[in-house]
Amino acid sequence: MNNEGNQEQAKGNLKETAGNFLGDKDLEKEGQQDKASGKVKEMADNAKEKVNDFVDKMKK
């Protein structure tokens, strides 16, 4: 599994929440961007895992 993507999403969530709480729109936006980036990394890692699983099955 992709811990990097999950960690980035969690970091983004914290930044977004803090920005919301503090009224800091820049921090809030940065958090949203981090969450989106983490989601993309997670999706890419999942796709890579599926391809690797498929290749492994084809080798057998």
Automatic annotation (TrEMBL):
Top-level taxon of the source organism: Bacteria
Similarity comment: family membership: Belongs to the UPF0337 (CsbD) family.
Record-annotated CsbD-like domain positions: 4-53
Biased amino acid composition, Basic and acidic residues: 23-60
Protein name from the UniProt record: CsbD family protein
Pfam family, one: CsbD
Ranges of Polar residues composition bias in the record: 1-10
Region of interest (Disordered), ranges: 1-60
